[in-house]
Amino acid sequence: xxxxxxxxxxxxxxxxxxxxxxxxxxxxxxxxxxxxxxxxxxxxxxxxxxxxxxxxxxxxxxxxxxxxxxxxxxxxxxxxxxxxxxxxxxxxxxxxxxxxxxxxxxxxxxxxxxxxxxxxxxxxxxxxxxxxxxxxxxxxxxxxxxxxxxxxxxxxxxxxxxxxxxxxxxxxxxxxxxxxxxxxxxxxxxxxxxxxxxxxxxxxxxxxxxxxxxxxxxxxxxxxxxxxxxxxxxxxxxxxxxxxxxxxxxxxxxxxxxxxxxxxxxxxxxxxxxxxxxxxxxxx
Amino acid sequence: xxxxxxxxxxxxxxxxxxxxxxxxxxxxxxxxxxxxxxxxxxxxxxxxxxxxxxxxxxxxxxxxxxxxxxxxxxxxxxxxxxxxxxxxxxxxxxxxxxxxxxxxxxxxxxxxxxxxxxxxxxxxxxxxxxxxxxxxxxxxxxxxxxxxxxxxxxxxxxxxxxxxxxxxxxxxxxxxxxxxxxxxxxxxxxxxxxxxxxxxxxxxxxxxxxxxxxxxxxxxxxxxxxxxxxxxxxxxxxxxxxxxxxxxxxxxxxxxxxxxxxxxxxxxxxxxxxxxxxxxxxxxxxxx
Lengths: 284, 288
Fold this sequence. Notes:
The complex is a heterodimer.
Chain A (H helix, E strand, L loop, with lengths): L1 H21 L3 E6 L4 H14 L4 E7 L1 H9 L5 E4 L5 H9 L4 E15 L7 E3 H9 L16 E5 L4 H11 L15 E3 L2 H10 L3 E6 L8 E2 L1 E3 L11 H5 L6 E9 L5 H10 L1 H9 L8
Parallel strand pairs in A: 1-2, 1-3, 5-10, 6-7, 6-8
Antiparallel strand pairs in A: 3-11, 4-8, 4-9, 4-11
Helix pairs in contact in A: 9-10
Chain B lengths: L1 H34 L8 H6 L3 E2 L6 E2 L2 H32 L2 H16 L2 H19 L8 H25 L3 H9 L4 H12 L1 H17 L2 H6 L17 H8 L8 H32 L1
Antiparallel strand pairs in B: 1-2
Helix pairs in contact in B: 1-12, 3-6, 3-9, 4-6, 5-6, 6-9, 7-8, 9-12, 11-12
């Protein structure tokens, strides 16, 4: 008898979280790996201020965010790229209305190992390196060393952005691709680690990931326009050539907790957190 | 009363057996249903022999030859490392080791099987990868070789325990006969025990390889994931499993990319099915 009661009790204990989820005081946020740290910082501050509300953040890449928004397994999708036509069509089919909210800016830093003598590159040279046309560092003013290209996985918004804006120069008809020899790493942190340990590697990621183990390259649109380092001022002023907006996507105009959270992200306090996590606040 | 009970239990067990077969068939049918749709946009030949894997480009290029070769290379490397060590270990445990060491070794190897592959992958990433890079003076340590070494660890428990079982099940009289004829311990093992257990050992090897080819997490972390046809074992590769794992998040349900990932699943299924059938045949031969 005692045993039975124990089993019933443990089943109830097990089911409790499932019941809790029905009362909507928690939201799920998924998507861009670039934005995970930012989202986490927002969520922590938000939960501190609104006890009882619960915000869960998961990464996985912008594509993951969109596919879970479409399949209704998250409330907000974080994304470092705009939603694609195809994805909108698919969402509409499932009765979901993606709504775009710009929440921050991000400079995309190209990083190398601090031991690498190369300090600056033009976007042409960058395109050459990442498509595999330039294979040795000596061709861009470095040492005689084979270049190891690091890239994010194809479900990463950063990967797509870099391909469209650097490799293809915003030209929708361009057929440029990442070199097949590029190593696809599963997170920005993995790229940071590999660059820190490998003097021949070159990678790219959101400015927030730069640390003392990596050196950010100054980038120029072309040789005449001058080289610009990825700093917050240069991204806000638009001088740094590879920067992009970061978005949150909701199903329709969000309501309840979703709206409250997004309002918080856009508030002065929320934007201060953006700056603190090394991203760039949106100017208003 | 007792008979009824027995009857019910028997039928329940039968039901479980049928259910597992039923599930395998369902999984395969689901794979076929989702995966074959990709051949509306790309021919089977281009899918299997295409050299470019750019699934999200417009138009998508869906050639999995580099992935197949990457998987085979990593698996082959792992087999070369794990088979001799694994079989030697099994021989030692079954024939030579004193009882105490035997028990310690057996539980140690079982423990090896219990380590989650993501942990092995992580350990590999911080220790093995830099080591491979320095020893071979490579531009990067994320290579097929690193993957092979790590996977060899994972195949080992399977190979050792099944090969040991095979050796154990050889009648004692074989060895005693050999020893009585004046053979040394080594001669008895090499000339009598190993050939007698050969089909069981072959099955152990095949099952070990089956484990390796399906492994995902560790290879994804340490092989570099470059979808290029591998020129050597010291180059980065991308395997079939890592491709599915890395890209399934992005693939929008119903898109070309999604179908392609399922088609990769079919290829993997066929490969492991072939390996399992071979292992089964080998085991069967032993029993006859």
